[in-house]
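Progress against Task 2.4 (sequence-to-structure conversion) is shown through the following example record, which the project officer requested during the mid-term review.
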Amino acid sequence: AMQTKAVNIEAQYGRRLFFIGAVRGIDSENESWSEYITAVNNLTDTLSAHRVSPVPYIYDDAVGIIAGRLCNSGVSVADTPMRVETGPLVGQDQTTLPVDKDGVRYNMAHAKALNDQRFSVPSFFPDYPGVFWSDAQTLDAPAGDYQVLENLRVVDKAARAVRL
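Structure tokens generated for the chain above:
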């Protein structure tokens, strides 16, 4: 529905946009990380929607976090939200990451499993303190040009300049 809306707006108004699609977070009382990852992976398995970036609520404000990293005027639209140049997420560290029903804290194995299924998620580096963000994955087809938002944003910016 989000992809259809984006394409319709572009066709009708000539406005290029994308959606950051919120995906439910883990039910930490009743789900393990493997159960959660299996459940949400079903949302993206068969989709091709290059104007949609799904973001699970690993943090309660996950959509706002990635939106803030994408709109940082100190970096280009071609930059990934994972950049370390602008620093880690403000007010978050690895102790603030959620746990599952077994008390297992979200970790890089979970981040990788979700990222591989085209979700944009919190991530971290072993040699940098703090929590960062993975690439802003989209639901583009496997061989598509817009598998990450930074590619789509560059083309959209150029298209807006040409259109005017």
